[in-house]
Amino acid sequence: MKYSTELLKNLYRTMVRIRFCEESLVEPIIQGEVRCPCHLYSGQEAVAAGICTSLNEDDYVFGTHRSHGHFLAKGGSMAEMIAEIYGRETGCSRGRGGSMHLIAPEQGILGAAPIVAGTISLAMGAALASSIRRDNRVAVSFFGDGATGEGVLYECLNFAALKKLPLIFVCENNFYATHMPIRECRVENSIYKIAEPFCITSHELDGNDVLQVFEAGRTAVDQCRKGMGPTFIECLTYRFRGHVGPDDNIQGDHTDIRPRSEVESWLQKDPI
Ligand SMILES: Cc1ncc(C[n+]2csc(CCOP(=O)(O)OP(=O)(O)O)c2C)c(N)n1
Ligand SMILES: [Mg+2]
Q1: pTM for this structure?
Q2: How far is the CA of 98 from the centre of ligand 1 (A)?
């Protein structure tokens, strides 16, 4: 067998842990017990699990507004994350940040933040530090398809390629940025192609196939550790819940404009 039972169990366990955690937040959010905005990660678990499992504990990850999965997969404490979401002093950001400000430096989780594309340059800074210190650490920047509309992504692609930084760009393309279908705001739908002009190895993969994601992560990590520079990985995936909270319709603030048939077809491709 190509993969050890231990590895397979680990990947599976990581995904199931994330899913249970996310789904356990649904009722408290609806009941108003959770007071901060929560962008649930259900449906995208294979991306966080696959990439984070290919990293060492002292490698770095940076996340977004939708980062519960990244935090848990990289070894963040579930208790501290839940405490943070509930605004408690015992939370990973001492209850001041909420769901979108998760951090655990000891586990290499150097921060999630809700500014779209806001942490890409921070991940690049961590990769630059690693390269100056020659400590062989890799940095991963997780971001959504919405980040492709922000200039800082392109600046970072150029600089990371120029300096051959140990940085992995992971775009979780779930086809929507809030309620905007990505096809309505981009002329080119294959996002991974944005890395080509910068001579960065880039490809698209099935982000719901945890082994494909893990393989891509492992290859990219190898390339980084050999000093060969960044990789751009586009993971095609889908969120099972609303943009923010369990269901935009239930919450009444927005309308989930995604066609029911499209949601149903992705539910058939559940990564777990
Ligand atoms: C710079 C900036 N512009 C707009 C917003 C409002 N906003 C919050 S999440 C989001 C969409 C993000 O979409 P994507 O990056 O695809 O991530 P997803 O929610 O799909 O995981 C937007 C526009 C923001 N937080 N930051
Ligand atoms: Mg998106």
Answers
A1: 0.97
A2: 17
